[in-house]
Amino acid sequence: MKTWNEIASNQPIATRILTNMIERNRLSHAYLIQGQKGTGKKAVSILLAKSFFCKNQIGSEPCHSCKDCVRIDSGNHPDVHHIAPEGASIKKEQIAHLQKEFTYTGLESNQKVYIITEADKMTTNAANRLLKFLEEPSKKTAAILTTENAHAILDTIRSRCQLIALRPLNTNQLELALIEKGLSKENARLFTVLTNDLQAALALDQDDWFAQARKLMVQLIEMLQTNIEEALLFIQKQWLLHFSDREQLKIGLDMLLYWYKDVMYLHIDENDQLVFLSYRENIEKSAMYWSKQDTTAILYAIMEARRHLEQNVHPTLVMEKLTLQMQR
Asked: Which residues on adjacent β-strands are paired with residue 30?
């Protein structure tokens, strides 16, 4: 549970906009909350939902202890509906089910709120169906959409929402906070770029899966430099078994991206920007193996692989193509 005061420490502008709306009783019928992972999108959406239901709030701050607040925190409020991607996307049937639910009278009030997480992952049919909801808003219906990429959402949906942009977290502050929590400088630097979220970073530090993932990433790099003919077999027999779902594979691609960024930093003498601090010697070997031009091409290939993964291309095809592109 977070309060508006806690959110304000990282998001002062967004917090001021929203709390002013709440205090003036001028809440919108639809919000689009945009921000990178770890910037507080979920916390803001929960606080907004409470603002529609809490009867004991003081100013803009909900009480956090009444029956409505407690059930919203737990995700069990009967008039607050949550939608998230099923697999790689939010489907038309999910929006249709939501519309059906909203034809019924609220169980405890006439107010209804729906929160759509990763709204940019709506299929075209789902987005068009949602648009009908937004075109004819009810005074007692509120939409809260969250996304990392507002530009991937239909213009017609964006134009009907109050956009709340959350600023990126200060990475230096996060890195220092992780070091204060007992993490090594090397891990703190890496987790800061991978998650930009304190709790997620602390979880990664204790995660055996992630420790093995990092080892596999280093093994793949070494294999590409010394034993190219075995690289595809390594991808099929070890990499894809460990990075077994799309979210895990995104982490693997992100680690590869930051490895090759480190290689580029060495090429352009920006050594203070290195992320994989404890692998400095390995990075130097990579910089000797891959030229600046090679590294640039590989960085583009990794970003393309991540886009293909978001577009639901089969993970095996994504990784096999990328491995071939990384071979010099």
From this structure: 143
Determine phi and psi for 289, rounding to 5 degrees: -85, -45
Are 145 and 33 in contact by the 8 Å Cβ rule? The answer is: yes
CATH fold for domain 4-165:
Rossmann fold (3.40.50)
Measured distance CA(256)–CA(224) in Å, rounded: 12
Q: Give the CA count within 13 Å in the CB-facing half-sphere of 160.
A: 21
The per-residue pLDDT for 37 is: 79
Average of per-residue pLDDT across 35-46:
89
CA distances from 21 to 10, 59, 249, 264 (A): 19, 11, 40, 46
Whole-number pLDDT of residue 310: 84
For the chain, the structural domain boundaries read: 4-165, 207-326
- Length of the chain in terms of residues written: 328
Using the predicted structure, report yes or no on whether residue 155 has a pLDDT greater than 70: yes
Q: Which of 248, 225, 230 is nearest to 298 (CA)?
A: 225
C-alpha to C-alpha distance for 145 and 234, rounded to whole angstroms: 40
Domain 207-326 in CATH 1.10.30: no
Which pairs count as long-range contacts for 281-285, CB under 8 Å and 24+ apart, including other chains? Answer: 282/218, 282/221, 282/222, 283/259, 285/225
- Give residue 117's Cα distance to chain centre: 10
Beta-carbon contacts of residue 191 (< 8 Å; ≥ 6 apart): 178, 183, 200, 201, 204, 205
Segment 113-129 mean pLDDT: 94
User: Alpha helices, DSSP H only, in 4-153?
Assistant: 4-8, 12-23, 41-53, 67-74, 92-101, 124-135
Amino acid at 142: A
CB 79 within 8 A of CB 109: yes
Q: Is the pLDDT of residue 137 over 70?
A: no
**36 pLDDT higher than 90:** no
Residue 34's H or E segment, with its range, is strand 30-34
Indicate the average pLDDT of the chain. 91
Q: Is a pLDDT exceeding 90 seen at residue 72?
A: yes
